[in-house]
Amino acid sequence: MTAASTPKGERRKQALIEAAAQLLAEGGFGALRHRAVAERADVPLAATTYYFDSLDELITAAVRYTAEQELNYSRSRLERITEGEHATEAVIELVLDAVLGPAPSSEGLERTLLRYEGLIATSRRPYLAPVTKDLGRQLHSLLSEIFARTGRPLKDDRVRQVLALVDGAVVGALIESNPDPRQAARVMLASALAGE
Amino acid sequence: MTAASTPKGERRKQALIEAAAQLLAEGGFGALRHRAVAERADVPLAATTYYFDSLDELITAAVRYTAEQELNYSRSRLERITEGEHATEAVIELVLDAVLGPAPSSEGLERTLLRYEGLIATSRRPYLAPVTKDLGRQLHSLLSEIFARTGRPLKDDRVRQVLALVDGAVVGALIESNPDPRQAARVMLASALAGE
Amino acid sequence: MTAASTPKGERRKQALIEAAAQLLAEGGFGALRHRAVAERADVPLAATTYYFDSLDELITAAVRYTAEQELNYSRSRLERITEGEHATEAVIELVLDAVLGPAPSSEGLERTLLRYEGLIATSRRPYLAPVTKDLGRQLHSLLSEIFARTGRPLKDDRVRQVLALVDGAVVGALIESNPDPRQAARVMLASALAGE
Amino acid sequence: MTAASTPKGERRKQALIEAAAQLLAEGGFGALRHRAVAERADVPLAATTYYFDSLDELITAAVRYTAEQELNYSRSRLERITEGEHATEAVIELVLDAVLGPAPSSEGLERTLLRYEGLIATSRRPYLAPVTKDLGRQLHSLLSEIFARTGRPLKDDRVRQVLALVDGAVVGALIESNPDPRQAARVMLASALAGE
DNA sequence: TATGAATGAGTCTTCATTCAT
DNA sequence: GATGAATGAAGACTCATTCAT
After folding, report:
1. How far apart are CA B48 and CA B98, in angstroms?
2. CA B41, C1' E12: Å apart?
3. Chain B hits for A119, Cβ within 8 Å
4. Alpha-carbon distance A24 to A29, whole Å?
5. How far is CA A75 from the centre of its chain?
6. CA–CA distance from D127 to each of B81, C33, D35, D108, D119 (Å)?
7. Burial of B158 (0-12, 13-18, 19+ CB in 10 A)
8. Banded model confidence at residue C1, pLDDT cuts 50, 70, 90
9. How far apart are CA D15 and CA D52, in angstroms?
10. N or C of chain B: less Cβ packing under 10 Å?
């Protein structure tokens, strides 16, 4: 569907979601306010409550949008796996891409952080639970497929372990203000998958 | 130091910190407001800004206080390790106690959650970094000692891995709204330490 | 006139009026909002301003509709007066029915309240004056007829007095949160008509 | 207590109440908004919620203040009753003063209206019930005393009847857009007390 | 003729922080 | 040193009304 063929209402709604997603990445959940989103999206303040019944709904949409962007990227990445990527190092990068998003750019840390912020925030914002859970499931099956396609199928429990290792490594890196959590996760994955 | 010998100012400050720590555990960072803390501590509203230049300072103190409580508990727990606790299952419980706090009571989940909330929040609140980093180091050495004392010394990297596994397991459990993150971590640790 | 023969516009207008009348009874004048009326009538929001130039017009229509319903009921009630109802007690009930609506059902209080709310509101909403005045006149003549038909014709001033007594009794009951204003009015009427 | 000796806070609170009472008289309950009150009292907007936890509280205070002003006037009026006022006509005026406030000035109608608006509003605003009830009792005893002091003691029921008659007359006048409800009540009272 | 979409103005309320005492 | 009083700025949300189609 091209921009021209998208109804204006849909486009506006989408603009709001994208503005909210940006703010979420930049400033976390605390930065999501009607005013801020409206200004960022360059729409009147009242449009925010016109398109979303409450701020919670907008937040939910932004979280879902962000995560789906990541998943889409990872899925398309999965299509392009070549024979050459069956090596352990290559698989590790695929996993990191899937969990943390594409290799670190300037905004890399922000995106990584957001994943964990969202997860934690869910505990205090029960309305996010369905989204978070759903997204979690999708990530799990994505990981499964990565391993399956690269010639080393893993049982669900083992997939969960891999995911936990990545998540734990990142959280640990965050604690130490380590500027490269991806590298921390890479190291741990390497050691964990060594025997595989 | 008895109550009588503690200057009033110090006592008030401490009361504020404890009140803030309570609110932090109950409602997360978003629940920390001057008014709420003052009411909980039963001090005048203005005392909150009198004893702490800003809300941030108070938050920092509350985070430090909370974490130190946890570490103290873990350290004292370490003293009481018996021969019988050298079995793998016992060590796992020691580790879980150290990282997540004492075995789950009614408020168990809250404490666990707070650990990760605090870690994540640090990324958005740079002023928390020193506290978080310091506490992270202390936890690391605590874990090292647990393994050393139970007859299975671990290299730093391996300790980091164990910690990552626990953290990752908990985060994963949180995603799935799993009400017992401790159990999730227990399972993963068991499988990871099996060969040890 | 059957539904089929009623132009769509007329039917919609009527649906709006009835929805507004319902809301008026349930929540008073303050509860009348475009959105609420449209939802209750199950018509598009914009229909409310399409069929009524302003909210005031819609309110007026709702007030008139409500009062006319009451009067219709009372008039039909009047038709069915039997010989046996010539006793004072019976006449009192007729009067109460006429002024306050049919004997209290679950929604009895609401209807009663609405009468006085409407009267008072008129002072602040001059556009209601014609409706209110007209309805007042009709009620007066209804009362006159009740007395005439039951064998005790009353002069206009006396009718006015009776009406005042009922109104005053109800208002008084409302002050005391008396849940049965009808009974209060009954008692007063009884004592006032004793000598008649 | 002079203005100088009144603490500033009390004076402000009082200013807010008086501003609210004015607005109440001028525009009814619907006119009572934070902004309007603050502007009228010439205080910052936030002062309205500083002195009154909610708008409801402020409304309640305004209602009570208004009614108490009326009662005070009536009570002081009662002190000054002379022998000459024992005539029925004089007593009637005393009653009208007590119920409706001092004889009509330019703002006479407004004050009269407010009494009934307040009463009716109570049904939709339960938080006003205590105030309304209390004020009702005071008015009742005031009326009793008027009759007692002018040599014609009345039983409670009879007092209630007199009050109902006045209230009913006023409501009736309001229906007819009669600009002089006081006169309507006067006429009815005269006829009712004729035999006394 | 209808109506979906839109919005400016306004609603009540909260809160970190300042300041006079 | 301590605090009651105060407030500017902002928060989420509502609503009558307009207008392009």
Report:
1. 32
2. 28
3. 171, 174-175
4. 6
5. 12
6. 62, 23, 22, 27, 12
7. middle
8. very low
9. 12
10. N
pLDDT one-digit tens code per residue, C81-116: 877 777 889 999 999 989 988 776 555 677 788 888
Please return the burial class of A121, using the count of CB atoms within 10 Å of its CB with bins 0-12, 13-18 and 19+: buried
- 3-state secondary structure (DSSP) of residue B90: helix
> Residue A131, CB half-sphere, CA atoms under 13 Å: how many?
23
Amino acid type, C148: A
**Subunit contact D174:C124, Cβ cutoff 8 A:** no
What are chain D's domains?
8-193 (1.10.357.10)
Q: Which other chains touch chain C, taking contact as 3+ CB pairs less than 8 Å apart? A: D
Per the CB < 8 Å rule, is C119 touching D174? Answer: yes
Helix (H) or strand (E) holding B157: helix B156-175
Does nucleic acid strand E have an atom less than 7 angstroms from the CB of D57?
no
Alpha-carbon span C132 to C123, nearest angstrom: 10
Q: What's at C73, amino acid-wise?
A: Y
Chains that touch D (3 or more CB pairs under 8 A): C
Tokens 């958005």 found at? B124
Distance CA C140, CA C196 (A): 19
Dihedral sign for Cα atoms in the order B81, B71, B9, B20: negative
Contacts of C20 (CB under 8 A, 6+ apart): C32, C37, C40, C41, C58, C59, C61, C62, C65
Note the pLDDT tens digit of each residue in A145-185: 999 999 899 999 999 999 999 999 999 998 888 888 999 99
Q: How near does any CA of chain D get to the CA of C166, in Å? A: 7
Angle between helices C181-193 and C156-175 (to 10 degrees): 140
Coil, helix or strand at residue C110? helix
Whether residue C9 has pLDDT greater than 90: no
Nucleotide nearest to B46 (CA to C1'): F3
Name the 3-class secondary structure at C177. coil
Q: What is the pLDDT of residue D2?
A: 41
Q: Give pLDDT < 50 ranges for chain D.
A: 1-4
Are A188 and B164 a contacting pair at CB < 8 A? yes
Spell out, as residue ranges, where chain A has pLDDT lower than 50. 1-4
Q: Residue D187: which of D109, D85, D89, D74 has the closest Cα?
A: D89
DSSP string of chain A, one letter each residue? --TTTS-HHHHHHHHHHHHHHHHHHHH-GGG--HHHHHHHHT--HHHHHHHSSSHHHHHHHHHHHHHHHHHHHHHHHHHT--GGGGSHHHHHHHHHHHHH-SS--TTHHHHHHHHHHHHHHHHH-GGGHHHHHHHHHHHHHHHHHHHHHTT----HHHHHHHHHHHHHHHHHHHHTT-S-HHHHHHHHHHHHHTT-
On chain C, the residues whose CB falls within 8 A of the CB of D27 are 124
Residue by residue, pLDDT tens for chain B (196 residues) are: 444 556 777 889 999 999 999 999 999 999 999 999 999 999 999 999 999 999 999 999 999 999 999 899 889 988 888 877 778 999 999 999 999 887 765 556 777 888 899 888 888 898 999 999 999 999 999 999 999 999 899 999 999 999 999 999 999 998 888 888 999 999 999 988 886 5
C29: left (phi over 0), alpha (psi -120 to 50) or beta: alpha
Q: What mean pLDDT comes out for the span C158-179?
A: 90
| C-alpha B92: how far from chain center | 17
pLDDT digit string (tens) for C53-64? Answer: 999 999 999 999
CA B39 to C1' E18, in angstroms, rounded, equals: 20
Q: Which of A26, A8, A38 is nearest to A66 (CA)?
A: A26
Give pLDDT, residue D55.
96
> pLDDT tens digit string along B33-80?
999 999 999 999 999 999 999 999 999 999 999 999 989 988 998 888
Tell me the C-alpha to C-alpha distance, in Å, between residue B154 and each of A22, B141, B159.
Answer: 42, 11, 6
Q: For chain D, give the number of residues.
A: 196
